[in-house]
Amino acid sequence: KELLKAACCNLSESFETNATVDVSFSNAVTGTKQLKMLGLDQKYTSLTKELLPEIRGLASAYGLNFIPGRWIGGIQLTKGGSTVTNGYESITGQINTELLKYQGKDETTLNFFADNNARFETNITNVSLLSEHWNQSILIHGNGTFSKMDYNDDGFLDQPTGNQVNIAYLLNYNDLEHKGWASHFGINFLRDTRNAGQMDFNKNLDQSEQSAYGVGIDISRIQLWNKTGHVFNGKPYRSIGFMNQFTYHQQDSFFGFRDYNGNQSTFYSNLIYEDIFGNTNHKYKVGASFLYDRFDEDYLIQNYKRTETVPGIFGEYTLTGLKYTLVAGARVDFHNLAGTQFTPRINFKYDISPKTILRLSAGRGFRTANIFAESQQYFASNRQIEIISNNGEIYGLKPEIAWNYGASLQQEFKIFGRKSTIIADFFKTDFQDQVVTDLDQSAQKILFYNLDGKSFAHSFQTQWDFIPLKNLEFRLAYKYYDVATDYLSGLKKVPFMAKHRGFANVAYSTNKNEKGGFWSFDTTLNLVGKQRLPNTSSNPPEF
Predict the structure, then answer these.
(1) Is CB count within 10 Å lower at the N or C end of the chain?
(2) DSSP per residue, 99-163
């Protein structure tokens, strides 16, 4: 229902009517959008597709553009500590995207999008039944921005030109009812090319042959995955699932005279067994996972290579009572570069009354930072990258470790004779270790170093949904962020993070006609408060 409100073109544009996720442009040159949750950058949120790792590593900068909105069958969003069965990287939450699948009838759709900036998109989707137990999804997407636009006359393109071809094929088998087996196969191929910079830049000439500044980004990506599950006969609570995925990602890019090229090969495997203790009020999951990452990056004249292998084991217990649900889990991962990591997480939900719900969560997460891929927004500047080594195994740095704590209260009531909901939540993230991106020490440098001191993010949000008239829906929200880090120059608020944010969405739909069709209209207003800019005192006064 939320996805239908906007003519959304990819995953980054699917959250425009959602107050929990902040979407912003990471930089003005490449026009790339990034998500923020609980006051922290997208890299601290686990972004999965079909519960498999998706937007991470080298894909972190542009990966939100790789999942077309028309392909999305659903999105699940978890704030704070998520389940340990899906890995250790989630710190502020998890966003999982499900692709379009067969839902009981064959369907083929053709979808077009165009806007006044000469951006065009086409989607062709087909979901169909092949036999009693087999069905398929064919997903085809193409987009292109062909005209150079400069509405503000600053000599730079307002958005990149380029195109994308994106094709996926899904094959599904389901015979849970008789034999207890289900399986899902997928393959996805993508090619994305973008050019940005000054209006006079000629992409057919080398940067050294012209005075105009240019940016070129060329990405190729292929994924293969399978998920197979078995439910034991006569025991629907007992099951086993096995999922595997291989991803190859290649990026060749230049930002003026700065070249950045990299490739990443990833293999992920996860085995989960689910059963009960005595009765279905006591469920448990146990399993093992394996993650293999091989990175090969070239930045300017320097080459950085590393291979990460991470076998892990986990267990999770779910206790269900009349008014409460408790999910407690832990995992141990044996990282070849970061050492053994223990990740506990707990989630608790209590129904104070049928219309009042309390949720509590706490958990630990850790990740290895990809400092070049995650900082590409700064490549289009004159800043030189400098790494202050801490004798770690990843760019000379140690991994990032954080604890997240959260509380949420939801209250339902009636106003105007219709259902209304108010939700208020508070989340706190404390970093035990962090790779700090320091833009304050010098306006001519980006410094990367491990945290020495404290770094935290406090997030408060309240949201009110109500329906004053039939078919007319209002959503109002306010968010407060307190995010600070100990830099070399002292404790400072994190730059580009507004302390206060307001959000309003109004949606109206007409009644369905005899053919089932209806019109829908909606508008969203975002109010963004002041944000701190990095210190530029070392620049000449006019800059």
Answers:
(1) C
(2) EP---SS-EEEEEEEE-TTSEEEEEEEEEEE-SSSEEEEEEEEEEEE-S---TT-SSB-SS-EEE
